[in-house]
Amino acid sequence: MPMDAIWWLIAAIGFLMLEAATFNLVSVWFAVGSAAALLSCLATDSLKIQAVVFIAVSAFCLVAFKPLAAKLRHTSTPTNGDRNIGRTAEVLTPVSPSATGRVHLDGVDWNARAVPGAEFQPGDTCRVAAMESTLLIVEPAMAPSHADAT
């Protein structure tokens, strides 16, 4: 086995170990580039060509697959609060799109803000259209749900 191949093998293993330690999905693409350069050792002894293969394959993988991997990795975690969407609540304090108020839902008081164009007064009934952290986004109880439109 030529010395170049040994160095590319060591590089691939090193990049994989670095990826295993960080999980940032960056060094794994360099490991793929190192593996491609290792395979290019079968075709040529030129270190320049092997380096070009390493750079080209690494750059291609980084540009092509990192956004895809980021999309696949980012999943929303459902919470118990998600069950509140679509349910009705009673307004305790004035709620508007620009002013946060309070609503009562299943024995719990929540901070709430209205969807654009809606305003609520104490005693009104509203429907939970969405949640943003611990803030309920509410809409008129008889309106079509914003959650259905998205």
UniProtKB/TrEMBL annotation:
Its main location: membrane. Signal peptide: none annotated. It comes from the Bacteria. The keyword NAD does not apply. Residues 82-140 form the NfeD-like C-terminal domain. InterPro entries: Membrane_assoc_protease, NA-bd_OB-fold, NfeD-like_C. It is found in: Membrane. It is a multi-pass membrane protein. The keyword ATP-binding does not apply. The chain crosses the membrane at residues 6-39, 51-69. This is Membrane protein.
